[in-house]
């Protein structure tokens, strides 16, 4: 697609971004994304386009580069990649998680899948287009954003609230899509059109303090919290089938009877239990249910003191159409007779968002994808995690999660490596994705 191979260039940039170690642990002081915004500024400078950096807190920098279009009425496309990564447990890795090593055609390191692979490929595509003197009708934006891994507070949310004109776009492409699959129902490539919403809650359980040497009859908040956690783990909310799930489930590499049952509200939960691949089962369950995951517990002050307060932080993810009232109703149903003794407060909330599948951008993506996979069709999917695309969708933009992975990279690979040990990406996927961005920009923007 391009005159010179992009593989080496995008590989080296990805390695450099990994080595910058922009780890976001959720605190204001973490991330240090300025390391990568500085790197990207140095990489992109020199061509005739504008570059601006925005830093709402010291070190939490986002970069915006623009190739302005000649026609104000033409569409604007934003390529958005985040520069922060989640923490690692280094002992679980086979290699240095921040070494950025190239081994047997794969780049290893935290962020190789989420999503420095796309951030680097977007930068290479943008630089190639600028360097060749491309002058489109519509504007192309490259947005390297901070703080995605902690809800976008100091990144996309801040930009949307304070500097939206710098990133305003009709179409936005970001993470979570582009995986090729060949099954008995044909060849497909995933296009992420929406995401679940977040309804994080803190459940506070009260007890009565006392001496740990006399536990008989104690009103122990830890014991009561254990019962609350057990109720949440055992709870089975109602099954809901969305149109996006119906389309996606029909393409899964599963026995036909399971595919049929996965879109039947009365049988979907039982069908999930018949899926041998646990990663696929997790996805199928999450895409058809409101989910509850009690992930953090705080309580107790000393080993010999019976605790009087325990907090349980629960990651709740909601489907399109779910409301805060639905969340409260489900929490009460899960806890049953324990509900009266539990205080519930909101930690963080965001609405589910989605973009319509039928659009000019979808048509362009499918056309370009078929240059690599001639028989493939794009299928819509919903991601169960959150992305920065929600801030654009809430302002009316069409936002898709995409990329273009090699045929050897599977959905199971994606699920296992995303936030997991031994995260890595093959260089063929880097090449395909970079060249895809170039072709999509030219086709869409003229």
Question: What features would you describe in this structure?
Answer:
By secondary structure, this protein is α+β, with helices and mostly antiparallel strands. The protein has three domains: 7-183 and 356-445, Zn peptidases (Aminopeptidase); 197-233 and 291-351, Alpha-Beta Plaits (2-Layer Sandwich), CATH 3.30.70.360; 238-289, no CATH class. 33% of the residues lie in helices and 23% in strands. Strands 1-2-6-3-7-18 form a six-stranded mixed β-sheet. A hairpin with a 2-residue loop joins strand 8 (180-183) and strand 9. The protein is globular, with a radius of gyration of 23 Å. The chain starts with 6 loop residues before the first helix and ends with a helix. The mean pLDDT is 96.
At a glance:
By secondary structure, the chain is α+β, with helices and mostly antiparallel strands.
Helix content: 25-40%
Taking all residues together, what is the mean pLDDT?
Answer: 96
> What is the CATH architecture assignment of the largest domain?
3-Layer(aba) Sandwich
Number of strands: 19
Highest CATH level, the class of the largest domain: Alpha Beta
Number of domains: 3
Strand content: 15-25%
Helix/strand/pairing class, anyone?
alpha+beta
- CATH superfamily heading of the largest domain: Zn peptidases
Query: What characteristic shape results from the CA principal axes?
Result: globular
The largest beta-sheet arranges its strands as 1-2-6-3-7-18
């Amino acid at each position: 697609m391009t005159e010179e191979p992009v593989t080496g260039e995008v590989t080296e940039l990805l390695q450099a971004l990994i080595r910058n170690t922009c780890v976001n642990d959720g605190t204001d002081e973490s991330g240090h994304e300025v390391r990568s915004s500085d790197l990207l500024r140095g990489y992109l400078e020199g061509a005739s386009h504008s570059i601006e950096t925005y830093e709402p807190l010291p070190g939490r920098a986002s970069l915006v580069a623009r190739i302005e279009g000649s026609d104000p009425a033409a569409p604007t496309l934003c390529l958005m990649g985040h520069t922060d990564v989640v923490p690692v447990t280094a002992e679980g890795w086979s290699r240095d998680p921040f070494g950025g090593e190239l081994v047997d055609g794969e780049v290893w390191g935290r962020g190789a899948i989420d999503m420095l692979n796309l951030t680097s490929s977007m930068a290479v595509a943008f630089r190639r287009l600028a360097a060749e003197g491309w002058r489109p009708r519509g504007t192309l934006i490259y947005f390297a954003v901070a703080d995605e891994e902690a809800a976008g507070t100091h990144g996309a949310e801040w930009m949307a609230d304070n500097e939206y004109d710098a990133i305003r776009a009709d179409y936005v492409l970001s993470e979570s899509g582009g995986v090729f699959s060949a099954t008995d129902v044909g060849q497909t490539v995933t296009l992420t059109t929406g995401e679940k919403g977040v309804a994080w809650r803190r459940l506070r359980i009260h007890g009565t303090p006392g001496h740990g040497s006399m536990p008989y009859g104690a009103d122990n908040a830890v014991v009561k919290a254990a019962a609350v956690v057990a109720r949440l783990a055992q709870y089975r909310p109602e099954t809901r089938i969305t149109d996006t799930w119906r389309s996606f489930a029909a393409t899964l590499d599963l026995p036909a009877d399971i595919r049929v049952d996965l879109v039947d509200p009365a049988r979907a939960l039982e069908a999930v239990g018949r899926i041998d691949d646990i990663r696929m089962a997790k996805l199928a369950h999450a895409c058809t249910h409101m989910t509850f995951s009690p992930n953090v517990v705080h309580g107790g002050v000393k080993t010999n003191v019976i605790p009087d307060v325990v907090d349980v932080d629960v990651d709740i993810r909601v489907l399109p159409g779910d409301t805060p009232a639905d969340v409260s109703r489900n929490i009460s149903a899960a806890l049953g007779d324990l509900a009266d003794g539990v205080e519930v407060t909101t930690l963080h909330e965001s609405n589910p968002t989605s973009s319509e599948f039928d659009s000019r951008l979808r048509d362009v993506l499918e056309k370009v994808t078929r240059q690599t996979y001639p028989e493939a069709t794009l299928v819509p999917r919903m991601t169960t995690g959150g992305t920065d695309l929600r801030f654009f969708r809430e302002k009316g933009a069409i936002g898709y999660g995409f990329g273009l992975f090699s045929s050897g990279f599977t959905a199971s690979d994606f699920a296992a490596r995303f936030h997991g040990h031994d995260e890595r990406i093959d260089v063929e996927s880097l090449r395909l994705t970079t060249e895809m961005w170039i072709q999509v920009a030219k086709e869409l923007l003229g």
